Amino acid sequence: MADYDFDLFVIGAGSGGVRASRMSASYGARVAIAEERFLGGTCVNVGCIPKKLFSYGAHYAEDADDAAAYGWSFGQPDLHWPTLIENKNREITRLNGIYRNILESNGVTLFEARATLVDAHTLDVGGERVTAETILIAVGGKPQVPSIPGGEHAIVSDDAFYLEERPDRVIVVGGGYIAVEFASIFSGYGAETTLVYRRDLFLRGFDIDVRRHLAGQMADKGIDLVWNEVVDRIEATDDGLRATLGSGEVRAADQVMYAIGRTPNTANIGLEEAGVGLTPGGAVIVDDYFRTSVDNIYALGDIIDRYQLTPVAIGEAMKLASNLYNGTRLAMDYADIPTAVFSNPPIGTVGLTEEDARARHGDVVVYRSEFRPLRHTLTGSGERTMMKLIVDRASDRVVGCHMVGPDAGEIIQGIAIALKCGATKAQFDATVGIHPTAAEELVTMREPVAAT
């Protein structure tokens, strides 16, 4: 066997790369990892964690208003945006340190430099040649940037976490979960917010009732939803920015944020030169065990563009490490992966949409409930929660569960376990609810929407 510097070399110290490194080292492999930007990858630095922190903060003005109904009286809310940014930065720095400690304590050699492939076993790491028997590509993705006149005046999600002040007027362009989340965040912090989407309803791929319900709730909270439109050009003025829409309408803003998708970070790292196959969109092509078209090179996480979720990348990494160095042959199970969208109100979902369930199972039974949360019986808020169950009539299995409302992500995580275990509607019905909670609605829905 050839004498390599390392058994495994990982490019990218995000959630998947770090987990693969740590687990491989625990099985006795000699492991190195390279990261040119920041430890923890997108999730820790410009994704899940700071986004959730921003989302928490975006609720406080609304909560302060609601508190009056419960006897609390506060002064006029006064936002100091730099405090948010400073505290967020401090927490991210702490998490960077934790990731560094994870690698060091597990004996993983860390290169804080750009790594590119020279050939199937050789890498250039910050100008140094390093060899490895096996190479793992886990470099994640990045936001797409607009290719329109004046696009340089727009920001993307990465930039939003470092704004020096909160913009008063924001236009968010896009219809995916990142666009929806940031529209809710900016609006919650008091910005006049517009969301522009090129189709007639956002969150394509989510259940239709979820999409419709959230659109209504966001509009009720004052977000201007502009459908079937695009931004043609952006101009800088003395008073901020001017965004010209496809219809010719001009909208003024202090920030225009694009959230139109993410692309894999596969450019200029030597993949083509090493013979690694890519999709037309730049994602790395892998088999069920994350092997690329080159036998000793693997890839996982956002770069393979299956499910761009941190827990999925971690699950893939654990299976790959075990397969490489623990004698297993495990494939990732992508069925019934739960997810949440931290909009206002948030979404939690697991399993099939109604459309997909009908296509797969044919005869399905749909249960749906919409109600005002108990807390708002005093506040007078018009916010409403929506819950939905989709059941395969033949087997009585619950094949989809969707929720829009407070704590949706927390609630659906538990329901995801039930779906993974193959729970039936009869078993949901036999479960005693916790009263008074919103979650009890999921075990008390008895009347289907319509006979199907």
Overall description:
This protein has 14 helices and 22 strands. The protein folds into three domains: 6-142 and 263-325, FAD/NAD(P)-binding domain; 151-260, FAD/NAD(P)-binding domain (3-Layer(bba) Sandwich); 339-443, FAD/NAD-linked reductase, C-terminal dimerisation domain (Enolase-like, domain 1, 2-Layer Sandwich). The strands form five sheets. Strands 1, 2, 3, 4, 5, 6 and 17 form a seven-stranded mixed β-sheet that branches. It has a five-stranded parallel β-sheet with strand order 8-15-9-10-11. It has a five-stranded antiparallel β-sheet with strand order 18-19-22-21-20, with helices on both faces. A hairpin with a 2-residue loop joins β5 and β6. It has helices spanning 15-26, 41-46, 48-58, 60-67, 81-105, 157-160, 177-188, 208-220, 271-274, 310-325, 354-361, 376-379, 408-420, 425-430; strands spanning 6-11, 31-34, 109-111, 115-117, 122-125, 128-137, 141-143, 155-156, 169-173, 192-196, 224-226, 231-237, 240-245, 250-253, 255-258, 262-264, 297-299, 339-341, 347-351, 364-371, 385-392, 398-404. With 452 residues, the protein is an alpha/beta fold. α1 (15-26) packs parallel to α10 (310-325) and α3 packs parallel to α7 (177-188).
